[in-house]
Amino acid sequence: WRCIKLVAWQAINLMLVYFFEYVASVGAADKANPSSALHSTDWFLRNSFVLLSFSYQLGVFISRSSLQIVRIRRVEIITIIQ
Question: What is the pLDDT of residues 6-52, one digit of tens each?
């Protein structure tokens, strides 16, 4: 029980962050690549889903790579921002 009490708050925050990440990426996927974009001459519109996916992966890479550089004492702030 002692271990659970020590990590429960962090675990809940991390679970919510991952949940919100996937809601944002999957929820925006259908909006990022509408059927009308397939025949568009606008490069950004045709490749919007690829750009969304790249931005998401880049953000994940930066956030996980910066754990040794940036120390966050109040993880719930990041959860709220997410």
Answer: 889 888 888 888 888 888 777 777 776 666 666 777 788 778 888 88
pTM score: 0.60
- Residue 44 CB contacts under 8 Å (≥ 6 apart), including other chains: 51
Q: Name the 3-class secondary structure at 81.
A: helix
Find how far residue 72's CA is from the centre of its chain.
17
3-state secondary structure of 23: helix
Q: Are 20 and 5 in contact (CB under 8 A)?
A: no
- 79 close to 17: Cβ distance less than 8 angstroms: yes
